[in-house]
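INFO batch 0412 | record 1 of 1 | parsing
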Amino acid sequence: MIRTRIVKSGFKTALRHKLRAIFMVVSVMIGIAALTLIISIGKGTQKKVMSRMERFFGSNTVVLMSGSAKMEGMHPEMEPTTTLKLSQVEEVAARVGTVVSWDAVQTALDRPATYDGRNATVDVYGHMPSAVGVWNLAITEGRFFTDAENRGLSRVAVIAPNVRKELFGSEDPVGKEIEIDGIPFQVIGTVGPRGLDPHGMNQDDQVLIPLQTLLKRVANEDYVMAAKFIVPDKSSIAPTAAQVTRIMTELHHIGPGEDPDFMVATPTFVNEMLRRANAMFNVYLPVIALISLLVGSIVVINLMLLSVNERVAEIGLRKAVGARSKDILYQFLVEAFSMTITGGAVGIVVGLMLLSRITQMMHIPFIVSWSVLLACLVISSLVGILAGIIPARRAAALQPVEALR
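INFO prediction complete | emitting tokens
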């Protein structure tokens, strides 16, 4: 019964000083909201990146990249990619018996495209006719180019959604002629939306043309950026990657101890790279949020100490009429705990509201785990107890005679 009265008194006292209560709630709320946002956005971003990598690599692929085409988010044109010849890719595909199908890729980025007075900046990607199956392209209108069109350096193009929207609007693009760098191309098809690639580039801004056309008519070069090989199953990935590495080492005359000028990537390699990156991400970002929460707890301590200083006479009177030190301690703990747990609950709600908005803007999955919400409530409770213990012990240690003097 006495404990119940103390709890009620603690709540009433906390609510009586509204401005102080608001500051305590807000200080904890900011930390909890930041913690909710950071962890949830981190999980959503991680899932999006993993999904993007899975679409890019698939479960039974081996990707061969030139020396500068690293999978680290860099722009492919930041360094010249001249170390991988198309003839070498063809030789690898012919010598590795586990390759079911393959495609080589080269790019010509940020090229001007025009149609009927409309302009767009596009990324031109040269592919082989096998690209539809290798990259799981969804042809939404028209068709993809053929092997004969690739060998004949035909000026045909398949455009992505953003290019279609900018150049054609609602008009049917199939059969129309566009100019890329002043070179006319006939649009023979459109491809569905694919989003960002592992380099962070928007694949919906692409124009796909035959690889030989890009090499001979647009870029005037004989090297490619990368090649993707499809193997029968997961068990074939490791031996295929080993064969590709051995053949490329032989073709490039790379001696023992020398750094290769190419990279062979497999789903296992990429998953390990992402795991290491996510490990750092999952450690440092929550630490930043916890620092924010620590600042909030310092605010609570200072406000509670201020409350003790303001209520010295009240504490002395309570102890003079029979209140025990542990009752005073309990009351101040209740005040601090009630404000921080309220701040924690409000912080979770605010964090979820902001998270919903941010995930929509960033186009990442809305992911919230119950363990995160529970952890936020537990942390806010601990903040209340730890932040309240110092002022509460100080209040409980006051002597009635000294307090009433």
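INFO post-check: Residues 267-310 form the longest helix (44 residues).
INFO record closed
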